[in-house]
Amino acid sequence: MTIPASTGPLADLRVVEMGQLIAGPFCGQLMGDMGARVIKLEPPGAGDPMRQWGRGQPVWWEVIARNKQSASLNLRAPEGQALARRLIATADILIENFRPGTLEGWNLSPESLMADNPRLIVVRMSGYGQTGPYAERTSFGLIGEAMGGWRHIVGEPDRPPSRMGVSIGDSLAATYGCLGALSALHERERTGLGQIVDSALYEAVLQVMESLIPEYTIAGMTRERSGAFLPGIAPSNVYACRDGDYLIGANQDGIFRRLCRAMDRPELADDPRYATHAARGANQAELDVLINDWTRTRDIAEVESLLIENGVPAGKVYRAPEMLEDPHFAAREAIVRMPHPRWGEVAMQNVFPKLSRTPGAVRSIAPQTVGQDNAEIWGGMLGLTNDEIATLTAKGIL
Length: 398
Description:
This protein is about 40% helix and about 15% strand. It is of the alpha/beta class and about 400 residues long. A six-stranded parallel β-sheet has the order 3-2-1-4-5-6, sandwiched between helices. A three-stranded antiparallel β-sheet has the order 7-8-9. Strands 10-11 form a two-stranded antiparallel ribbon. Helix 1 (about 25-35) packs across helix 7 (about 170-190), helix 6 packs across helix 8 and helix 7 packs across helix 8. The chain is elongated and about 80 Å long.
């Protein structure tokens, strides 16, 4: 599959993606979205398990494998390892999210790959990182979410820890892996040398846990589950209207005053119980009752109109249908529709963030078959003949 030429900021980069499932492929998606040429190596046959994932239809693959080419390769076979080494020697970045030690067991240690290609940047994603007593343990994103502190604070206080409806641990590790790669690319401009990026799932989660650690070490406070609101940040909750739920965030003093004006309760802004950030936090529950008593007698449209008019941050709780119908999503092209041979068309999120001169783009749909780009990758790039490709395919190498 020939991917349209990129004008994105990473258009001059070649990336080899050897990961599977979520963290490695999402890191590759981020790079491909910004224009990099991403060559995904998949095991012959079934390929990446992500090809089968999705609710209703296996469409997750269409998002996570867009802007990529697929080359099949058996990395457990010495012949496959030799081909991988030759390909990686031409690459700027290698992405992998196997269990630590796997590359080394395949005779593809980063050190040996970087000896062949000193400019190579190797992005390694794993549950616990490449070092430390837990490094070789098997892990998934949910374990990183638990160890990094996320799971303990998500859910209702009287129920067991909950989870988000998306694989946030994997996505965070992939995002930090991409950030590390871009940082290493910048450093390579000065030294001409690549390096290893070590992105651990639990550390990626820990990074977004705000002041959780110093709150405990300085104040002895352990964050707990609080449900739909953040303790001490008020008002900032989901409130019931006559026709659905509506999110309001007015925890800053000036904005709270505007909310009171919208509610036709201006006196609340000067009430000692609510006049300051600390006071609102201390009286959060009763303040939420006051606001909810106001919203539940009105439709969302009326509440939204009043809050927009008064400059109060607020918004509907969106699902996919609302996203597809929203004029702001449409105006910013937040959702892109791609022609597809199986479904006719696939709608998905576009590329973010937006760059003014060299924006990224969804240039191609995901590879539809495992190894569909074998001729271009192994033949066009590495010089294998059609007969050699056929022989390796018959042997289960490709």
